[in-house]
Target: Secreted protein
Amino acid sequence: MRTWRKLSKLAAVTTLAGGLAFTGTPAAVADGGSTEKSAALACGGNVFLDGIRALAISENGRDEVYIEADGVKIWPAGGSYVSMTAGQRVEVDKCVRPQAALRLMEVDDLDPNDVIGRVILQGDVTRDYEFCCGDGGRYRIGAVR
Model:
């Protein structure tokens, strides 16, 4: 899985770098940035959500989490949720609009799903955001602009 993700990022960076060479963008931009910065460039004017890390989980052993942007589930794409343990980091790799309202939700089979935290993206900066502290859960997500 990691090898596939690295290869897909490399392909995206290569495609982006090739496109920049034809558009007159300085080569230093294509060559000097990290993979995350290159992915953010591919998002156009949007914000790239990099990875999410569980700092503390809200339940015993694992949280089943998903992310909503402006009330619409955006992650994970291939399932209802991602099961995470404390300390675990998972790639998100999504583009969202600046100023989007993000919510990290925890699936609850018996009750309505719990909100672990909410953040409003500041679209003009690259930074980490923290979802805290619904049911004791704490998560950090990186946003690259």
Q: What stands out?
A: The first strand starts at residue 47 and ends at 56. The domain at 47-144 is CATH 2.60.40.1110 (Immunoglobulin-like).
